[in-house]
Automatic annotation (TrEMBL):
Its EC number is 2.7.7.60. It catalyses: 2-C-methyl-D-erythritol 4-phosphate + CTP + H(+) = 4-CDP-2-C-methyl-D-erythritol + diphosphate. GO terms for molecular function: 2-C-methyl-D-erythritol 4-phosphate cytidylyltransferase activity. Coiled coil: none annotated. Pathway: Isoprenoid biosynthesis; isopentenyl diphosphate biosynthesis via DXP pathway; isopentenyl diphosphate from 1-deoxy-D-xylulose 5-phosphate: step 2/6. It holds the Pfam family IspD. This is 2-C-methyl-D-erythritol 4-phosphate cytidylyltransferase.
Amino acid sequence: MSVVALVPAAGRGVRLGLGMPKALVPVNGESLLLRAVRGLLAAGCVQHVVVAAPPDQVELVAAELAELPAAHVVPGGSERTDSVRLALDVVEQVAPEARVVLVHDAARAFTPASVIQDVVRAVEQGAPAVIPVLPVSDTIKRVDEAGDVVSTVDRAELRAVQTPQGFAIDVLREAYAAAGDIATDDAGLVERIGGKVHTVAGHPNALKITTAFDLAIAESVLAAGAPQSTGELA
Ligand SMILES: Nc1ccn([C@@H]2O[C@H](COP(=O)(O)OP(=O)(O)OP(=O)(O)O)[C@@H](O)[C@H]2O)c(=O)n1
Ligand SMILES: C[C@](O)(CO)[C@H](O)COP(=O)(O)O
């Protein structure tokens, strides 16, 4: 079954604070975006990639990915949901035969191949939507507007959600067609149309590089000698 991956990479990286789009930030000489796209293709189950770039940097992003002919670049939008929608819109031209679609943050550049493969396999086996998740390790409290604790949430049933998220392509198209508002992840839009979302095990290396601390973690693990060619930390 042909698989296309959409890579939202149009964010500004405000929380990272380097004054440049986060996707273009280098880690040991290679950008997060190049690592993320190469990692998707190296997993061996993704044939096409559509990257949503900052609208004013489409050519720069295309040049960054010139070594990967399977990657296509389109202008992204003002929210992540807009960027994914714009990438999804060109799948019919780029990969008309695709029946499985992944959505994968450029910021999760060190996702192991095994996670990508597990998500694709679960969709190919019939799940309409699949997300990689991790258990929550902190105690979680619900607080009110004054900052006072209302209750302690039972974390046994909570999961932190990663990407790539995988979908039967018709399901993601239906979810985006119905989407009335932005969502923090794509599976959330499938939930809104009543679709079932299955989980597989995520991985700590699939962390989203959001802050300078996250970047320092990635740099230090790579500096310790982890392989770089597939984009994996370890
Ligand atoms: N308008 C947007 C916003 C985000 N993204 C992408 O969505 C992923 C997850 O977003 P996030 O980590 O929040 O990235 P930024 O928006 O760049 O971060 P910040 O909120 O700190 O600016 C990233 O790969 C980012 O490039 C996107 O394609 N289009
Ligand atoms: C899609 C996501 O990575 C799943 O955890 C996350 O929701 C993106 O959130 P952000 O606020 O756009 O970084």
